[in-house]
Design goal:
Helix content is about 30%, strand content about 30%. It has a single domain, classed as 2-Layer Sandwich (Heat Shock Protein 90), CATH 3.30.565.10. The strands form two sheets. Strands 2-4-5-7-6 form a five-stranded mixed β-sheet, with helices on one face. The two termini are about 20 Å apart.
Length: about 150
């Protein structure tokens, strides 16, 4: 896929589930996902690699450093005007994670959403009570990208 290319939402979810299946080989039962996705998804394109890096970030900072593992929650909410994606993960108390956290993945997604949706999408981050939460709000209808 080329940078800036959009893909059907369903394809982005499939890619994310395939990524989780690969990580499940690595982490076994330490990795658990709680998928809260509507049975019927809208025919909506989103920028490629929007959801998968959010899950990868949760694995890297929530599951990997935890000796007991973690549950990553992935929610999709569809309203008349917006698609909302929420990914939450607990923050490991004892951090054995050797990967540095520079926020590049989240900033990359934020910038791509800003370009694709002309400033009408939002990516917010919350770190509260031991839970890290990323929320992406995407308009379902965008102006033509000529």
């Amino acid at each position: 896929m080329r940078s800036g290319q959009s893909v059907p939402l369903e394809d982005e979810i499939t890619l994310s589930k395939q990524y989780v299946a690969l990580e499940a080989w690595r982490f076994g039962n330490r990795l658990k996902l709680d998928w809260q996705i509507p049975n019927e998804l809208p025919a909506l394109n989103i920028p490629c690699l929007t959801l998968q890096p959010l899950i990868e970030n949760a694995v890297c900072h929530g599951v990997e450093p935890s000796e007991t593992g973690a549950v990553i929650k992935v929610e999709l909410h569809v309203t008349s005007g917006y698609l909302t994606i929420i990914v939450t993960n607990p923050i490991a108390v004892a951090t054995t994670n050797t990967r540095p956290s520079n926020g590049m993945a989240l900033e990359n997604i934020r910038q791509r959403l800003n370009i694709y949706y002309k400033g009408k999408a939002q990516l917010t981050i919350a770190n509260k009570n031991g839970v890290f939460r990323v929320k992406v709000v995407i308009p379902k209808h965008i102006e033509s990208q000529l």
